[in-house]
Specification:
By secondary structure, the protein is mostly helical. The protein contains seven helices and no strands.
Amino acid sequence: MNTTKTMLITVAFIAIGLLAFALYLQHIEGMQPCPLCVIQRYAFAAIALFCLIAAALPPAGERAGAALGALAAIAGAGVAGWHIHVKSSPDVSCGIDPLETTLNTIPTAELMPFLFKADGLCSTNYAPILGLSLPQWALLWFAVLSVAMMRVALKRR
């Protein structure tokens, strides 16, 4: 297997692992996801999906899939950055609002509510994990995954 396919599969499994960890935090630790958390979950799911599909394609398809995955990671990083801002600014909230209602009516939220249903408040302060909040960890992982996918997307043959 070539290094490009290995990189795409590795990125996909990291994104799936992060989604699995989010499910652990939600269902075992009782940390309810807010609308911004759910949007970040969609971004990680898109990264995994783009990378797995790209790994099955010829080289041009690999690069295109990696580019789409990088765009999903950049979008996820933007949402994570906004989430960090919301948590650090007491006057900003995304609590129970139209965003939550809209997210909870998307077909994927209705088919997989255990993963994509928003029930929490964005400003809820959960205990940090290794010194970082959940949106900070998400931002870090989005940055790492976007760099990895951009390397694949811009790789010359």
